[in-house]
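Minimal example, chain plus flavin-adenine dinucleotide.
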Amino acid sequence: MTHTELLAALRAAVGERQCLTDPDLRASYETDWTRRWSGVALAVVRPGSTDEVAAVLRACSAAGVGVVPQGGNTGLVGGSVPRAGEVVLSTTRLAEMEAVDAEAGEVTVGAGAALAATQAAARAAGWDVGVDLGARDTATIGGMVATNAGGVNVMRHGPMRHQLLGFEAVLAGGTVLRRLPGMPKDNTGYDLGGLLTGSEGTLAVITRVRLRLVPPLAQRAVAVIGFENASAAVAAAGRLRREVASVLALELFTDAGLDLVMRHAGVSAPFAVHSPVYLLVEAGSDAADPSDELLAALEELDPGAAAVLASDPGGRHRLWQLRERHTEAINAEGVPHKLDVSVPVTRYAELVEGAPDAVRNVSPEARTIVYGHVGDGNVHVSVLGPPPDDEAVDDAVLELVLELGGSVSAEHGIGVAKVGWLVRDRGEASVAAMRALKAAWDPAGILNPGVLFGS
Ligand code: FAD
Ligand code: MLT
Ligand code: ZN
């Protein structure tokens, strides 16, 4: 099949208006959120149903042309944008939201439904979504399953993997797999939905998801505390985690990140005292206001520490902005190298303090901003300065992470950014097992070529 024939088949599959070939219309689908990765697509198709997704995949399979599934395009490892003339399959029109099953606490949504829209539907029915993250207005539920997204509440509710009760997905050749609605107990062979979780668009296109919902936490309190160094902040996080049963989120950031956020997001410092390292803690309960419990724990940690606490929605939002707006503030300064990694909690402070040195050794002019979900051992190292294709700083940080016994990807995935590190992290045997799965599910290799395994 020629490209002209393929384009005709794609137009027949999704309709003329949902097959974008004009470069101006394709542009926003061709560059990732960080602007580090971009490529040209043969076309961007926007199917409106599972059948249309199947027709697109059948046509691309017949033509032997790669397909890049794309949700909200908020992914941070370059896996959602084309590299060499693939077809981008945007899921944003697959946003149908079924009624929440308020009795079971479950909902089925189209893969293209945004997290914020799903949260709104869940909350209106007296429930909530277990995963929350800063890109909530744009990130899609399908993309979040495909990346096994984590976010700020993993300590309490686990990552996306723990929310998945059922799925519908289309294989490369157009076959539809469906297990909806899901059931908490369902031991009928391989967990195919689990396999798709974290598969980054390489095994199938997810079209619908059934999510387990969580009880809402109406009473919340957020505190920000200043520390002299990362070790003190990590030790405090450990104590809060043990001693405050209602802890929902534990986040760490430093003065370098706070300066950027204040400059670019127009927010003010949490308190007058400057601190090298900050801890944000959120506690949540469905019954009593957790402020007193949190205040008492903070008092016990260090009665003299610089700290601020808010329990009203406006105050909590202001404090969360200090942490959540790091990503956009860094992006406003340049094109970042983003290293999302995990280490055992006992090595967390070493990584927070060692990452800027590791970067400086290979790129003395680079700026390193470190923050992350300290409750999960997850550090985000963002580096500004080196050109996008210079991987020296990426390699230096990931080398340090492996030395500390960590994982080269905590929650963002491998994408194209870390393909060179998959075998180092997981070992030959595990990657061979992954390749065998890929070959069985997508023998022609048309789904997200280059992602996970490289070319
Ligand atoms: P995309 O970026 O469109 O795609 C991501 C990957 O999934 C690609 O490989 C793509 O091919 C694949 N994919 C997308 N949809 C499908 C589908 N339907 N079927 C098969 N494959 C698919 N991530 C976290 O884990 N935790 C955070 O706290 C967090 N915070 C963020 C904050 C900001 C401001 C930003 C910009 C990003 C953040 N992210 C975070 C990263 C990002 O939001 C997540 O990775 C998210 O899950 C991506 O969803 P998406 O719909 O944008 O997917
Ligand atoms: C976050 O926790 O803010 C995100 O994962 C995004 C980032 O790494 O900047
Ligand atoms: Zn994160």
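The pocket of D-malate (ligand 2) is lined by residues 76, 134, 326-327, 338, 340, 380 (CB under 6 Å). The first strand starts at residue 19 and ends at 20.
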